[in-house]
Design brief:
This is GYD domain-containing protein. The protein is α+β, with helices and mostly antiparallel strands. Helix content is about 45%, strand content about 25%. The chain has three helices and four strands. A four-stranded antiparallel β-sheet has the order 2-3-1-4, covered by helices on one side. Strand 2 and strand 3 form a beta hairpin. The radius of gyration is 17 Å and the shape is elongated.
């Protein structure tokens, strides 16, 4: 199952919602959204600094991740980015594939 690192920052409106619902309230919503698409939340942490929230989630496919990303961003309450995470085995497989590439100017 594809795994993603999610880094998110609340907008002022989103922060007001967080203050009202609390962290456990938001976790319940995240769990419901992710499991509703056949995924699972591996880890969820609140932070301070550039990101307010960091999560690792598993989804059955990249389209499910895209659907969640689009819906969350459309709310205007959160700005987020999703980074696909690859296993060591996946990178080992990638290193064995032949790629026909020529660098510019070479």
């Amino acid at each position: 199952m594809p795994k993603f690192l999610i880094q998110a920052t609340y907008t002022p409106e989103g922060t007001k919602g967080l203050l009202k619902e609390g962290a456990s309230g938001r976790r319940a919503v995240v769990d419901q959204v992710v499991s509703g698409l056949g995924g699972e939340v591996e880890a969820m942490y609140f932070a301070f600094g550039a990101d307010d929230l960091v999560m690792i989630v598993d989804f059955p496919d990249t389209v499910s991740m895209a659907a969640v990303s689009l819906t969350v961003k459309a709310s205007g309450a959160v700005r987020s980015r999703a980074t696909p995470l690859l296993t060591l085995d996946e990178i080992d497989e990638a290193t064995r594939r032949q790629v026909a590439f020529r660098a510019p100017g070479a």
